[in-house]
Specification:
This protein has 132 residues and is an alpha+beta fold. It is 49% helix and 14% strand.
Length: 132
C-alpha cells in the first residue's frame, strides 16, 4: 500500500495562492520588481562594505591603510579583498618599495555601480521602515 507523504518540495508552499498575495513584504521591491536586486551579499559583509566605501572616497589605498582603517588581521583583510577582486569590484596593483611588497587597491566602475545599488537598496529599506 503506497504511503501518502505530506512533505513539501523545495520552492513549493502549503499556503493557498490567495494567502501568498496578501502577505506583507519585509523588504521593499526595487524599481525593477525584484526584492533582492539591490542587496549584494558580497558587499553586505562589514569589512567588504568598509573596503568598498573607503575606496569610493579615495582614489587608492594601500593594504596597510585599509588594515589600519578596519583593525583586522592581514589574512582577514586579504581574504575579503580577494573576494572583491574576484567579483571585479576592486583591482590590486602589487609592487615593491624599498624591497617590501606594496599592494594598492582601487575601486572599479563595476564596483562603484554595485556599491551605489547596494546603498540605494539600504536607503529604500530605511525609508520603508520609517513609514511603518
Amino acid at each position: 500500500m503506497p504511503v501518502k507523504s505530506n512533505a513539501v518540495k523545495r520552492g513549493e508552499s502549503t499556503e493557498p495562492a490567495s494567502a501568498k498575495a496578501s502577505k506583507p513584504m519585509a523588504v521593499p521591491r526595487s524599481v525593477h520588481g525584484n526584492v533582492d536586486a539591490g542587496f549584494d551579499r558580497l558587499i553586505y559583509e562589514r569589512v567588504r562594505l568598509g573596503i568598498m566605501s573607503a575606496l569610493a572616497m579615495n582614489e587608492q589605498l594601500t593594504f596597510n591603510e585599509l588594515k589600519s582603517l578596519f583593525d583586522v588581521s592581514d589574512g582577514n583583510l586579504s581574504a575579503h579583498a580577494r573576494k572583491l577582486e574576484e567579483a571585479g569590484y576592486v583591482v590590486c596593483t602589487k609592487s615593491f618599495e624599498a624591497r617590501r611588497p606594496k599592494s594598492i587597491y582601487r575601486i572599479t566602475q563595476v564596483g562603484k555601480r554595485a556599491l551605489l545599488r547596494y546603498l540605494e537598496h539600504i536607503e529604500a529599506v530605511i525609508k520603508a521602515t520609517r513609514r511603518a
